[in-house]
Specification:
19 helices; disordered N terminus; ABC transporter transmembrane region fold; four-stranded antiparallel sheet; single chain; six-stranded mixed sheet; 62% helix; transmembrane; alpha/beta; nucleotide-binding; membrane; binds adenosine-5'-triphosphate; Rossmann fold
């Protein structure tokens, strides 16, 4: 089955943020809870101590003691709150670091199709905006929310104990406000989802455009591209403004509820005080609790809205982790030794069909690449040549048919072992933004020494150019010291030549090479193919003329296979390709230009 178009039913793993941060840290959880409770209790007790202080002042007895108690309670609450917040924040940073590491690890393990579909920018947003939003759940969830809820409930209980009739009046005044807030919270969740998706999409587009900066500048498209990005940024801003409008409703609605309650209580409570049913201390304490009621409500509301945004980001992490990774040991028979079968061809395709989407790209492809020697694959652009290489690498799996690598079904090779048999130069000659040395030794268990690296560079005519770089082999490529297209291609070839892999896959390795370097390349390939298999995709017939075996692709099918001379007689398609190429080419275009040393 093709991994390109199917998304297997991967059970979505829930990410329990709080469970993750407290896993194995029970003591920390207990500590945070005790501190939070202490801070909340102190806040709750404070207005009661004010009442006591008032009475003490009235009775001129013990007010110094109550003043000290008030100061102690206030300082204690502040200290407990600060320590709990610090402990939690420190743990939160660890969680975010773990989440980032897990995201990067999972992104690197994704199949190529899934990674491309998700998009670089969108994946990068997980490390930035999404991680920050999840962190806010940690900062707020275990402290601000419980503290505000405990304070709220505790305040209501104390108010009820002070005077239940006044409490009923208070609740009535706040009821309508809470109804409005519930509706707003639900709507906000939807808005935050839209915002975070749109931010991911904006980042994705921005990264893609920055990667195409050369072309954008060459075609003076900065304004047009900037307009496109601006439209997306405005869409984000529009969503954010709508969310802000909803958030802005919350505090005034709570304040309105509080003011209505205040008027009702001053009227009701005042009348009862005049009648002597209510003493001054209780009335003042009740009023203080009423004023204190709005703060935990606002705190709880702001915690709920921030947590909503964090939960949307948590879902985005869950979605990422649910994307299927490449299966490193798909279908591997237990105990199967990942070794090539002696005497088997390097590659064999048997009736292979493949499609990236609906439209078939390869149809009933049968081909063989011998275990040693040079096999060339030719065909018009879009005929499926790179797709064949991608299937050998198992970047995708075929829809139908069987692919064997060194005598074993590709699907039965553990992925690492399979790719250990292959050296690959992709069409873009991709290099890492890293040193020349790391680029050359990529994937080598024991990195080759400098002498071997320089020899490989000499073989592709790059030794002098690399040693001239400011840090030689340790120069970082891609920043201030970039290479030309042809130099990149030659460096990628040197990397492949340094690999000990028994099968070398080259996707148009000469497209950027001048005639001198093309001759060098041909010699390099001849050398490698003496005792290994080389499968080269090439448009230049000069590269394939000497091949031991030629595969001709046409519209996703193998139209012919054989030696050059035979194909010239039997394959009109091949003959046409060769004639088209020969118009402007001599047999050995620039062999004479090579210096004695090069030869
Ligand atoms: N990642 C992809 N997603 C969808 N379709 C793709 C993808 N890669 C290639 N194709 C399509 O598959 C077909 C074969 O592409 P492929 O790159 O294998 O051809 P090719 O023979 O190597 O072409 P060229 O010589 O131009 O490099 C083309 O029609 C192409 O549009």
């Amino acid at each position: 089955m093709s991994t390109a178009k199917t998304s297997p039913d991967v059970p979505q793993e829930r990410l329990f943020i709080l469970r993750e941060i407290f896993r194995g840290r029970a003591l920390l959880l207990v500590g945070v809870m005790v501190l939070t409770l202490a801070a909340t209790s102190a806040t709750l007790v404070l207005p009661w101590t004010v009442g006591k202080l008032l009475v003490a002042i009235q009775e001129e007895d013990g007010y110094t003691r109550w003043t000290w108690i008030m100061v102690g309670v206030g300082l204690g609450a502040a200290a407990a709150n600060a320590v709990a917040t610090y402990l939690l924040s420190r743990t939160g940073h660890r969680l975010i670091c773990d989440l980032r590491v897990r995201s990067m690890h999972h992104s690197l393990g994704l199949g190529l199709h899934a990674a491309r579909a998700e998009g670089t920018g969108n994946l990068a947003t997980r490390l930035t905006a999404d991680a920050a939003a999840v962190k806010s759940i940690v900062d707020i969830g275990p402290i601000q929310l419980p503290m505000s809820l405990i304070t709220l409930v505790g305040t209501l209980v104390i108010m009820g104990l002070l005077d239940w009739q006044l409490l009923l009046i208070t609740l009535g005044a706040f009821l309508a406000a809470l109804g409005v807030i519930a509706v707003v919270v639900v709507a906000l969740r939807r808005k935050y989802t839209a915002i975070q998706n749109e931010v991911g999409s904006l980042t994705e587009h921005f990264v893609a455009m920055m990667e195409s900066l050369t072309v954008i500048k060459a075609y003076r498209a900065e304004r047009a591209v900037s307009d496109q990005l601006t439209a997306r940024a405005r869409q984000v801003a529009a969503f954010e403004t709508e969310a802000s409008a909803m958030e802005a409703l919350m505090v005034p609605v709570i304040n309105l509820g509080q003011q209505i309650a205040l008027v009702a209580i001053v009227l009701g409570g005042g009348a009862r005080m005049v009648d002597g049913e209510l003493d001054l201390g209780t009335f003042v304490s009740f009023l203080l609790y009423l004023f204190q009621l709005a703060a935990p409500m606002v705190m709880a509301m702001s915690a709920v809205t921030t947590i909503q945004a964090g939960l949307v980001s948590r879902k985005r992490f869950e979605d990422l982790f649910a994307l299927p990774s490449e299966n490193p040991t798909a279908d591997t028979a237990p105990g199967a030794a990942p070794k090539p079968v002696a005497g088997a061809p390097a590659v064999r395709f048997d009736q292979v069909d493949f499609a990236y989407g609906e439209e078939p790209v390869l149809r009933q492809v049968d081909l063989t690449v011998p275990a040693t020697g040079l096999t060339a694959m030719v065909g018009l652009s879009g005929s499926g040549k790179s797709t064949v290489l991608g299937l050998v690498e198992r970047f995708m799996d075929p829809d139908q048919g069987r692919i064997e690598v060194f005598g074993r079904a590709a699907a039965h090779w553990p992925l690492e072992a399979l790719r250990g048999q292959l050296a690959y130069v992709d069409q873009a000659s991709t290099l890492l933004r890293d040193t020349v040395r790391h680029n050359l030794t990529l994937g080598q268990d024991t990195p080759a020494d400098d002498a071997a690296l320089l020899r490989a560079l000499r073989d592709v005519g790059l030794e002098e150019e690399i040693t001239r770089l400011p840090d030689g082999l340790d120069t970082v490529l891609g920043g201030a010291h970039d290479l030309s297209g042809g130099q990149r291609q030659r460096l990628a070839l040197a990397r492949a030549s340094l690999s000990k892999a028994p099968l070398v896959l080259l996707d148009e390795p000469s497209s950027h090479l001048d005639s001198i370097n093309e001759v060098r390349l041909r010699r390099l390939i001849d050398g490698i193919s003496r005792d290994r298999a080389v499968l080269v995709v090439a448009h230049r017939i000069s590269t394939v003329r000497h091949a031991d075996h030629v595969i001709v692709m046409d519209g996703g099918r193998v139209s012919a296979q054989g030696r050059h001379d035979d194909l010239m007689l039997t394959s009109p398609m091949y003959a046409e390709l060769v004639q088209g190429q020969e118009l402007g080419l001599s047999e050995e275009p620039a062999a004479d230009l090579l210096t004695g040393a090069d030869r």
